[in-house]
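Researcher: Here's a chain I'd like modeled. Treat it as a single chain, no partners, no ligands.
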Amino acid sequence: HILTLPDISEYEGEKIKGSRFLATIGPASSPEPVLARVTELREAHPGACHHCWAWRGDGENAFRFTDDGEPTGSAGRPILNMIDGRELTDVFAIVSRYFGGTKLGTGGLVRAYGGAAGEALDQATIVETLIRTQLSLNFSYDLEPLVRAELTAVDAEIRDAQYTDTVALEVAVPKGDAAAFVAS
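Model: Modeled as a single isolated chain. Structure tokens:
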């Protein structure tokens, strides 16, 4: 099971020294939809000077972030830290900044970008979901009762079944059970 967001939401916090920070958060299983959303935000908010973002996927090395022109380490990493601090998976956060005329310094930017993402995530609905792995099975008819019993035992979903000279099933099993299921 993972914790994630069910849908996209937006949040705007209080201005910081005249700058506005708008956070857009939502689910994404890869960075590609996040890049598309950043492009949409650039068009929707042409006055925003930075669109810094972070994405966390399923896995220790499944993450991306960018400071989008802000000083290195002042925006993307603090946003990612907010996602990770809530133990979320397959989630993105984009924080768009409208410059208010006063420089905030690196520490101020870290607090502003991380804070906007954190407040948005705190106000969001977080859901627990089951990650499934897709498997293709092919076996003889005489094994079908045994295979179906195993599938039921691991709470698998049968997505497609083809009956020819053998039985071919497309199934989705909970990710944690996939290796054990294949071994059995």
